[in-house]
């Protein structure tokens, strides 16, 4: 909707990570430098950590996009809670190695054969593990064991581990990971962007979809956006998408601080409605005192039927949209009332002047 209204050629703030929208902030630039350095070394582990939504996946996608497939064989794994055997299965599957048996020794042999074959063809094999904080200590040790494969002085596999902040503590302090620590050649923690970088990030993404300055963002608008997001890319994307949608509905040419505050209020209401629907669906009861059994302070209890729960869940899905429409109508009514009020006061002033005359 907003793309058509503002004549944009795409969605600049979609939540799905897209390496084409990569923004080279100072912290992402450092991370990319470490990744590039790691590739040039051709061995060991490179570790990148960052808060949720800090742009880790986009960073990794950008790296993979920049590599020549004629020189590199790459695979990416997004992990869940994997043990030692399952991580080997995931590695094999990610590289397209067809292993039909579950014997660990056979899996390792097949992976080693794959790595040596790539080396003979003059290709470097890279393994990127996303959400590495979910890996068990034993799984990390298996990855470390795979890094032992060599041809002469050259390592056959290099691994990049990308995870949330807790992974930084895990690999740094777990006594069982001492040998892995000795193979870490570079590490970087992604920090939030500054206020100035936040502004540049927004304009960079908009420019990639043919933004011609409509809507314009005022300085106080940028300030409110940074205040909410703290320079975290995912929060920025969520808020900016809502701002553009709101701007299209209201036919705005400028996104200022007041607009940002109004949209943030809408988002807060949406979050409240969603959480209320979730609590209702989970507990099946409602209570004013917040007890999980749904009892009121008076001791009375309301039991909600399954039909009512389903109706409430369905209502919750549309509540945010209906609430947004209602809020827009109220805003327009308030504007009209103010205009009429000024008109009436002006008319009264004219009448009083005539009577005095």
What is the C-level CATH assignment of the largest domain? Alpha Beta
Question: What is the number of domains?
Answer: 2
Give the overall shape, derived from the CA principal axes: elongated
Instruction: Supply the helix-strand structural class.
Output: alpha/beta
How can the largest sheet be summarized? 5 strands, parallel
Secondary-structure arrangement, i.e. CATH architecture of the largest domain: 3-Layer(aba) Sandwich
- Please, how many helices? 13
**Would you identify the regions where 5 or more consecutive residues have pLDDT less than 50?**
286-305
CATH superfamily heading of the largest domain: P-loop containing nucleotide triphosphate hydrolases
Give a verbal description of the structure:
The chain is of the alpha/beta class. It contains 13 helices and eleven strands. It folds into two domains: 165 residues, Rossmann fold; 155 residues, Helicase, Ruva Protein, domain 3 (Orthogonal Bundle). Strands 2-3-6-1-7 form a five-stranded parallel beta sheet, with helices on both faces. Strands 4-5 form a two-stranded antiparallel ribbon. A two-stranded parallel sheet has the order 8-9. It is elongated. The N and C termini lie far apart (56 Å). About 6% of the residues have low confidence.
